[in-house]
Amino acid sequence: MQPQSPRHQDGSAGDANYGTIGNRYAEFRQPDPRIAALIENALGQARTVLNVGAGAGSYEPRERVVTAVEPSRSMRDQRPAWLPRAIDAVAERLPFGDAAFDAGMSTFSVHQWRELDAGLAEMRRVTKGPVVIMTCEPTELDRFWLHAYCPEVIDVEAGRYPSTQRIARALGARSEILPVTIPLDCTDGFNEAYYGRPEMLLDPEARLACSAWSFVERDVVRRFEAELSADLASGRWDARHGHLREQQAFEGSLKLIVGRL
Hints:
Elements: H1 18-21, H2 25-28, H3 33-43, E1 48-52, E2 65-69, H4 73-77, E3 103-107, H5 116-126, E4 131-136, H6 146-149, H7 151-160, H8 164-171, E5 176-179, E6 182-183, H9 204-208, H10 218-234, H11 236-241, E7 249-250, E8 254-259
Parallel strand pairs: 1-2, 1-3, 3-4
Antiparallel strand pairs: 4-8, 5-8, 6-7
């Protein structure tokens, strides 16, 4: 096993400090049932499931026995009462025996791990069935209109997210990378979820639920707000992208990686 990763004051193990930015994370990052169904299907018949980087509990299956791991205290504190209390641990050092779980999962978490390969190896070690990872493909982030308004945020994301091919290789030869279609009324507020609702990205709290915004300078954010506000007011955004307001689904960078033994 790898040595435990350095942590922020609230226990966050990655580059983002969720003690500072995550206070309303659970409010904006509600699991979308259509995306949840894809994860449920990928977990197969597993009864016991390990959720690594579990955060506030999004996408944890209700009808299975879930063990959650989350290093950030603020994220653990936002977990609703009906979910199991999360264990304070990091992906690179999971406190479980070999093949302890039927399946493993991680959603929007791998870009926070200090040692990706070590964390994936640990998930594979403690899991005897599928390992399901929801993440973004960094080379496809520029499909989203945000790239034209705030390329700095897209660049931050592209630099943080590991290649989906790298993850798939680490999980084994039978791994599969599946595109995840984002619905227009997606309830999970990651950046691309607002592809047809641009006004949402003018809400500072909504932006903070996407950790990439915490890495760009304040003057960059002010420029983004001014430009998008002006284009929405003038109709320029709608002239270029208005069809997205009625487009029922968007295929951007979101992927589901399913590693099977």
